[in-house]
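Running this now, will post back.
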Amino acid sequence: MELGETLEEAVRREITEETGVEIILQGITGVYHNLSSHILCFMFRAQYVRGDLKKQEEEIENVQFVTFTRECVSELITRPHMRSSVVDIFLNQCFHLTSV
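Update: finished.
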């Protein structure tokens, strides 16, 4: 996050910078604490708005849009900690963001 930026603004900016697409955030699906590295991971549900996917050549082998189903999560997400947080999305719990 940059100084003065809200969490929503930071997520939208990072997604656009890293992928080239614009999104609308629909809410938070979970907050996860990585005990080994003391990091909080926020997971969001988002809707694609526009833009073409771009690939970070030095970091990524391939990019594509995929339709997630609960059945294909284990095939598409190989890291167990990420897999469990993605499965939480299918529980249909989405906490809407509000300004305080």
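The beta strands are 22-34, 39-50. More later if anyone needs it.
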